[in-house]
Amino acid sequence: MNAVAAAPLAVPVRKSGRRWKIVVYSAIALVLLVAVAVVGVAWYFSSQALQVSPDHPTYKLRVLAIGPHTVEVARTADTVRPGTYSLQWLPSGRITLGSVVSANQNDVVRRYTGNARGLRAGSLVHFDFWMYHSPADLHLSYRSVKVPDPLGLMPAWFVPGHGSTWVLIVHGRGASLTEGMRPLLTLASLGFPVLDLSYRNDLGAPASPDHEYHLGASEWQDVQAAARYAQAHGARHFVLYGFSMGGSLVESFLHHSQLAGRVRAVVLDAPALNWSAVFDFRANQLSVPGPITGLAEQIVAWRLGVANLDQVNQVNPGADFKVRTLLFQGTADTSVPPSANMALARARPDLVTYVQVPGAEHTRSWNSNPSAYTAKLRAFLSVLH
């Protein structure tokens, strides 16, 4: 009887054990899936930071109407923004946009100067804040040159000047030599020889072995190659001029290059100097959860071959600045947190002249107010003569 009575009790125990194992295994699988998903999202986010993605002109903006002095286009965050910009159309048309005449929810009317021949209602145009295609658009003579570099020959534009202090212009992530055209006329009028340089992974330049950006950690060597080229052609001192990620290359050069002592001044336009702050800023805009952001930043560091991003952050506020610096920063920057560069300026007011530009987007301080930008730049550099 005891054996018969005990038999029914053994069955539920075995079923309960199987159910418990299923629950445990399911939980483990779920945790693994979540972990894989988190790592995947973090890896994707890190790839967005390191991926080489050249910025090409996009002829998608449609002209709605064109008059003798005004042009009407669809309203976007860019087309309604005050300042000086240009509209470009194929094959080689360009006009300069000025003040906003009127704007509603759908379209914007702006004044323009220049030759609008070939532009008509229905034309597709590119809204450009870099303004110019080459120094020739500024009526400056220049030469296309090749800078010897450890990876090969780097294309550059050289604008002759007088004196032995050269300005080296370093563009930002995904940009090109044309980004440095806006202040070029001012630099040339001050007499500086100017070398507008490219670096690894640019269009037409040699690629890095992994075909990825290193946020300045290796690209500074290309700035050094440009400085050596300048030395070989008469330069004794330098002014370094960096836009966005180009600012990171400039500061990395100052930290690592044997030629850093020859730099007399630095100009930075919306520089990306604190990559941790940049990633946090962008992640917050995209509503990326904090743990994923932190993991993505660590993955970026690993992919760069460093322990953490502190090793590629170019500025330890206050401690690392040794060169007179003019820093332009727009308050409406959606790529680099203005607070990070403002903190730097507050830490070293003895060396950093901070120019806050209300309403300016990323690297568009010149566009927001060309005359004010030019006046600050001219005053800062004039003392070098």
The CATH class of the largest domain: Alpha Beta
Number of structural domains: 2
- Derived from helix and strand composition plus strand pairing, the structural class reads alpha/beta
Low-pLDDT parts are none
Shape field: globular
Separation, N- and C-terminal Cα atoms: 111 Å
How does this model look, in words?
The protein has 385 residues and is α/β, with parallel strands linked by helices. It has two domains: 61-128, Beta Barrel (Thrombin, subunit H), CATH 2.40.10; 135-274 and 314-382, Rossmann fold (3-Layer(aba) Sandwich). It is built from nine helices and 14 strands. The chain has helices at residues 2-50, 184-189, 220-232, 245-256, 275-285, 290-304, 338-347, 365-368, 370-382, and strands at residues 61-66, 70-74, 85-89, 93-103, 107-113, 124-128, 143-149, 152-159, 165-170, 194-197, 237-243, 263-269, 325-330, 352-357. The strands form two sheets. Strands 7-8-10-9-11-12-13-14 form an eight-stranded mixed β-sheet, sandwiched between helices. Helix 1 crosses helix 6 and helix 3 packs across helix 4 (245-256). It starts with a helix and ends with a helix. The model has no long low-confidence stretch (mean pLDDT 90).
